[in-house]
Description:
The complex is a heterodimer. By secondary structure, chain A is of the alpha/beta class. Chain A has 15 helices and 24 strands.
Amino acid sequence: MRNHTRLLLSLFTLAVLSLLPLHPAFANASITIVNMDGAGEGFNDPSPADPASTAGGNPGLTIGQQRLYAFQFAANAWSQLLDSKVPIFIQASFDPLTCTATSATLGSAGAIQIFSGFPNAPNPNVWYQVALANKLAGVDLAPGPPGSIGDDIIARFNSLLNGSPSCLGGRGWYYGTDLNHGTNIDLITVLLHEFGHGLGFANFVNELSGSNAGPPFLSDIFSTFTLDISNGLHWDVMSNAQRAASAFNTNRVVFDGPTVTAAVPGFLGFGTPGLTVDSPPAISGVYRVGSASFGPPVSAPGVTGNIILANDGIGATADGCQPFTNAAAVNGNIALVDRGTCTFNVKAAQAQAAGARAVIVANNAPGSAPGLGGTDPTITIPTVSVSQADGNTIKAQLGIGVHGNVGVNMSVRAGADPSGRALLYAPDPVALGSSISHYDTIAFPNLLMEPAINSDLTHGVDLTLPEMRDIGWYPDADLDMVPDGEDSCIPSNLAVNVVVGGCDSGVANTLFTNGCTISDQIAQCAAGAGNHGGFVSCVAHLTNDLKKDGTISGAQKGSIQSCAAGASIP
Amino acid sequence: MKKQQRTASGVLWVAAFGAVALLALGAGSSAAAPAGPAAKAPVGAAGMQVFLDPATGKMRPATAQEMKAMSDRLKGFLSRSSEGLKAQEHPNGMISLDLQGGFMNVWVASVSPDGKVTNACVNNYEAAEAILSGQAAPAYEEQ
């Protein structure tokens, strides 16, 4: 049995929460932080507040209070953007998690339960995070007291990260709200990201095996928008083997929800570094490249030419470690060399000596295109890498000639595919982690749901909110469960009964599919009537129509009309 | 008693932290030293797990038991196995699945010798371990 007194917000908390930004008039998801920590620890840690965080806008008087303030700050940021008539509860705690002087687990979060087949489920055959399922159902599908399985999201963060050199080299949490975290970890940014996972930016797939969560082994709402452009299949219709293969299909997995795609131009700039193959058509497209630490960076318009496989005539002839024997063919074109035998800058130097204008290093092992290290100030041509799979694709077509460009493709947005859909992170191998349930790291400007915290992030939610819209977090300012775009009455009068001028008619206040209730329509009569007679006449017409279509009975019509007649309206 | 504790500690290090643990143990030489790694190394040594002592409120090396608990906890967060999950069928046809604390996304971070911090939100234990042990692939390779 949990001590419920621990779950209650302290007076301090109530005080500081009152200082947080108020919800806008029609922002309606209530998100509550459920303090799961015991006395003297975590959110209840009585240690003096972090002065830098205090200066950064966190009014907490103790570390525990500052932690709670930061949590509620992040929760409020989401609550101002999402609408749900069912309150959201986040079970939160600060616990000792793994930490050494050089590494640390910062924290974790995710949904507590997932649901399918609930009332009003847009897709009854896939899993939804419980908070989203509640919103769509309009009722709490998992009722229970705070601190129980009835909550929606669980978030645990590392209490050891306190500035001690023993933990992550002295880096600690920054609890301020002004992003001035210096070398510390900005807790609010991490929380916005992690809450995003808990609210819906995540699948429930084991990316190593491709299996869905279960039983029953259903797909999830995120996967219905996860598209592999190589085979044109969404993850929800793939076999386990197809999903497992797609999970590391770098540069070819997108989130194709219409709201995200429409929002991409507003968040991602043009310019994707890459290898753009324009012929033969069978392999045309933009290939992900790794950059080099030597030579000039790729740029626009880049280097265009035929792609020619190097031949140095010795051993592995395509490794480009010796002077090329096919320099005449390479001259003026783009050299393709295999990784291995010698350093990357040696390969680049040999290609440059052969007259190449750019170099592509094909990986010699499975995995993503590697970053090319090394130094050589004499190299003046750009060098990039491609994955082994992409290298093989190109080599297979060299017999008929491959033509392309090494550079920054200014027609493709950074973080999107050529069709303008947001790329999901699909590193090769999958064991690199973070797969699919994040936006691709190539995105620029950086996004909240990339798998790493970038220093240029603000406390915004950028392309994450459109993703939430696509999976079902539709705007519903008046919480009548009619999307704002289809709602003719915002805000609606959602009283249980039709009440006219203080007179309770006893008639149920029916909500129609256009988002208007009977009370809304009577209010429209009041607003449009020049005098009381006009109002009564309007209500009479309205109730006659409602009786005609079977919404109300004759007696109910009389009750509403009687109330209208007796009301002092206008 | 003390010797048993040292042995258990070494085993857990290897299990939980792979290569880094081996480095911390000095490829076996430290394991043969009079004191176990948790007791010998100063607080803050690279690779050493720390713990906030609830009694003193100060950092100290984590015990084998504490290390195991933390490692198990991390594995639990990152479990994406359906083993042990049991769906509940409701009268209205709805199905719910308690994820038992798994299917989480976890932020991990490490600091390289030059002070550069690598951080990532990961969803499998192998990835978390790679970053925590400093074995994540470098951004640039030479050859």
